[in-house]
Amino acid sequence: MLNIILMGPPGAGKGTQAVKIEQEFSLPHISTGDMFRAEMASGSELGKTVKEIINRGDLVPDELTCEIVKARLSQPDCANGYMLDGFPRTLPQAEALEKMGKEINRPVTMVINVSCPDEELKRRITGRRVCPKCGASYHIIDMRPKKEGVCDLCGSELIQRKDDNLASFDTRLSNYYKSTAPLIAFYKERGLLFDFDGTIGSENVKNEIFALLRGK
Ligand code: AP5
């Protein structure tokens, strides 16, 4: 069973790989970041609660995050596998996931850890532009849209995520090292961790991940 976690610092390429894996292996892509951004866009109470936290690059409280993940993982479409992107991000979240995995009989079977040096992460994040409508991602140097500022896929105006500025990026990165990087040891101990170099080009990263998933 492919019950996967995609882990890595901000900008390592988790979202990029998640889209490719979702298409190839038909796994539901559960991104806590996307879920929170959808709540923010809808103006819901949850969205209002998390907006400032996310924009400044801090982590949403564990209890709130675990609650939405448990509800999502319990849905019928996760019975034959799932892919978590950006969760867990703290030790309490990893422990809660282990517990809920047992309760709903959907334990994590593999952790894909994508690494990338800090300077490259900063370059990717500060140059990223996204389509607020269809979610497509671009970069001002590496991956320009055909028409500047306009999404190739749906024609919407591209935006910069509010947390893709330098100050928020620094906070996200230091939160990653403080709270998320320790999970590498947590999953290594459980024999679930697989490491990937996120600097080798997204198609190469994809090929390496697919080879692992096809062998399972
Ligand atoms: P989230 O949306 O998860 O953001 P993140 O982890 O910071 O990750 P990103 O989406 O920025 O990066 P990515 O690794 O997906 O990279 P991408 O593929 O886009 O979370 C946002 C916020 O929500 C958090 O800060 C927090 O506040 C909150 N939150 C979410 N989950 C939470 C949780 N569990 N607990 C508490 N709070 C939570 O790629 C980046 C760029 O690089 C793109 O432009 C892409 O084209 C490019 N690129 C990708 N791969 C390559 C490659 N191999 N070579 C060259 N360029 C590449």
Strand content: 5-15%
Q: What is the CATH fold-level name of the domain at 3-116 and 180-214?
A: Rossmann fold
Which CATH C-level class of the domain at 3-116 and 180-214 is it? Alpha Beta
Low-confidence region ranges = none
Please give the alpha-carbon distance between the first and last residues.
Answer: 8 Å
How many distinct beta strands? 7
Helix-strand pattern: EHEHHHEHEHEEHHEH
Number of helices: 9
Tell me roughly what share of residues is in helical segments: 40-55%
Q: How does CATH name the architecture of the domain at 3-116 and 180-214? A: 3-Layer(aba) Sandwich
Task: Give the strand order, joined by hyphens, for the main sheet.
Answer: 2-3-1-4-7
Mean pLDDT: 96
- Bound small molecules, which ones? BIS(adenosine)-5'-pentaphosphate
Major sheet, described briefly? Answer: 5 strands, parallel
Structural class: alpha/beta
Rg on CA atoms, Å: 17 Å
Overall 3D form: globular
Secondary-structure blueprint of this entry?
Layout lengths: L2 E5 L6 H12 L3 E3 H11 L2 H11 L6 H12 L8 E4 L5 H13 L6 E6 L2 H10 E3 L6 E3 L26 H15 L1 H8 L3 E5 L4 H13 L2
Parallel strand pairs: 1-3, 1-4, 2-3, 4-7
Antiparallel strand pairs: 5-6
Helix pairs in contact: 1-9, 2-3, 4-5, 6-7
If you had to describe this structure to a student in words, what would you say it looks like?
The chain is α/β, with parallel strands linked by helices and 216 residues long. It has a domain at 3-116 and 180-214: 3-Layer(aba) Sandwich (Rossmann fold), CATH 3.40.50.300. Helix content is 49%, strand content 13%. The protein has helices spanning 14-25, 32-42, 45-55, 62-73, 91-103, 118-127, 166-180, 182-189, 202-214; strands spanning 3-7, 29-31, 82-85, 110-115, 128-130, 137-139, 193-197. It has a five-stranded parallel beta sheet, with helices on both faces. Strands 5-6 form a two-stranded antiparallel sheet. Strand 5 and strand 6 form a beta hairpin. Helix 1 (14-25) crosses helix 9 (202-214). The longest helix is centred in the C-terminal third of the chain and has 15 residues, at 166-180. The termini are close together. The mean pLDDT is 96. Bound molecules: BIS(adenosine)-5'-pentaphosphate. The site of BIS(adenosine)-5'-pentaphosphate has 36 residues, from helix 1, helix 2, helix 3, helix 6 and strand 6.
